[in-house]
Write a structure and sequence with these properties.
By secondary structure, this protein is of the alpha/beta class. Helix content is about 35%, strand content about 15%. It has ten helices and 18 strands. The strands form six sheets. It has a seven-stranded mixed β-sheet, sandwiched between helices. A three-stranded antiparallel β-sheet has the order 15-16-18. Helix 3 packs across helix 4 and helix 7 crosses helix 10. The longest helix has about 30 residues. It is globular and about 65 Å long. Bound molecules: ligand T4K. Ligand T4K binds next to helix 3 and helix 4.
Length: about 400
């Protein structure tokens, strides 16, 4: 792995805090360029650029092995994978989902003519609260689409019990949950399908990319048809498919990324631990519970500001930006507040009090392999400046 960056070359300004080097909510880990060249040479040599080429097939196999899942279908991006997952299971009517996610979660429903029904989230996990699902079920409900928000697993057992009782399908938006595992196996093995994103901002990236994880070969075959216009062979089209295929360049990058993924997650874990340690003394800052019962991927580092923190979340957000630190307010605004959703009765704020509060409190701090200790010190110092922690320098 390339050495982590240090912010030491930045000049000191504004109370001695380094401001020069921009620190983003995330930055992709890119393997050494020279290691990518042989993959490109192969593509140039074979001229096989897309349509289930050799790197595509290799990456599907490698990911099944790495993730511990039966079948995986690669996609151009996570959003098309979500749209296709709903098609694959022929979901119609209403689907219960979380408002506390990236807008693509609910957009995938609208693209399929499905009505999203928002249910509130759990205060500790910020995932769909299973206790709120049953009340949202109507005769039109056909499925639940929970999100493993920030890569933190949903209560998969409780959700499955409800799905079994009401004969509903479960499609997990697992865009954040690459590599997340229980001792018993991958979190991606739960529900009917799980959808991953390999976008540039994700722990494992193919620049753009995504995948559907599915348990059986028959469903995988239907998904493969759907992502290739519905073609089975040159003259047979069995479904109204779309073009969702991942290219050979993206698949090749995925193969190379896989070699470094354990190291990348290990570095993120160190950063997570450092933040927890350094923020412990800051009044009014809440970190989400530490990953104890599962193997995390440390995709995001969200903090929540409560009334004890001396300034608002947005004031701290601005303060950090003024110091050239760029956290993100994932997920503010709530999906249910966007114009195409806010007319729904389930989008009313009094139906979503926990999500509404979380969206006003949350700030995702920078986390990536590009961050060094100097960078983390710099971020924590800005946060602590207004909290109760004494200044460190
Ligand atoms: N479901 C969930 C729960 C999701 O979170 C997402 C995507 C999806 C579904 C859909 O999956 P995809 O179709 O995207 O595969 C980003 C991403 O665009 C989006 O993929 C992601 N979720 C969402 C949470 O975040 P923005 O608008 O915040 O990204 P952007 O461009 O502002 O990037 C954030 C920071 O990352 C930049 O400040 C710097 C860094 N960055 C970004 C890019 C694009 C880089 O260093 N290099 C880059 O190339 O949405």
């Amino acid at each position: 792995m390339a050495a982590v960056q240090s912010g030491s070359t930045a000049t000191l300004r504004d109370e001695g805090i380094e401001t020069d080097r921009p620190l983003y909510v995330t930055q992709p880990y890119l393997p050494p360029l020279e290691e990518f060249i042989p993959y490109l040479e192969k593509i140039w040599e074979t001229k096989k650029l897309t349509n289930n080429g050799p790197f595509h097939r290799q990456l599907e196999n490698a990911l099944c092995e790495f993730l511990g899942v039966e079948h995986i279908a690669l996609f151009t991006n996570g959003t098309l994978a979500l749209v296709t997952a709903l098609q694959a299971l022929r979901i119609t009517g209403e689907v219960i989902t979380t408002p506390f996610s990236f807008v693509a979660t609910a957009h995938s429903l609208l693209w399929n003519g499905i009505k999203p029904v928002f249910a509130d989230i759990d205060r500790d996990t910020l995932n769909l609260d299973p206790g709120r699902i049953e009340a949202a079920i109507t005769p039109q409900t056909t499925a639940i689409m929970p999100v493993h928000c920030y890569g933190r697993p949903c209560d998969v057992d409780a959700i499955q019990r409800i799905a079994d009782n009401y004969n509903l399908r479960v499609i997990y938006d697992a865009a954040h949950a690459f590599g997340v595992r229980y001792p018993s196996g991958s979190v991606l093995r739960h529900g009917d399908l799980s959808v991953l994103s390999f976008h540039a901002t994700k722990v494992f990236t193919t620049f753009e990319g995504g995948a559907i994880v599915c348990p059986d070969a028959k469903t995988k075959q239907r998904i493969d048809h759907l992502k290739n216009f519905g073609f089975v062979d040159e003259v047979t089209v069995v479904a109204t498919g779309i073009n969702g295929k991942m290219s050979e360049v993206n698949a090749a990058l995925g193969l190379l990324q896989l070699k470094y993924i354990d190291e990348a997650i290990a570095r993120r874990k160190e950063i997570d631990a450092t933040y927890r340690e350094q923020l412990r003394g800051v009044r009014g800052i809440r970190c989400l519970p530490d990953a104890d019962k599962y193997l995390a991927n440390y995709a995001y580092f969200p903090i929540l500001l409560d009334g004890d923190y001396p300034v608002s979340r947005d004031a701290l957000y601005q303060d950090l930006k003024d110091h050239n630190i760029h956290p993100r307010r994932y997920f503010y605004p709530l999906i249910s507040d966007f114009p195409m959703y806010r007319g729904l009765s389930s989008a009313l704020r009094n139906n979503l009090p926990v999500a509404t509060r979380a969206a006003e409190q949350v700030l995702c701090l920078p986390i990536s392999t590009a961050l060094g200790q100097t960078d983390l010190d710099r971020i924590v110092r800005v946060i602590a400046k207004r909290g109760s922690l004494p200044q460190q320098r």
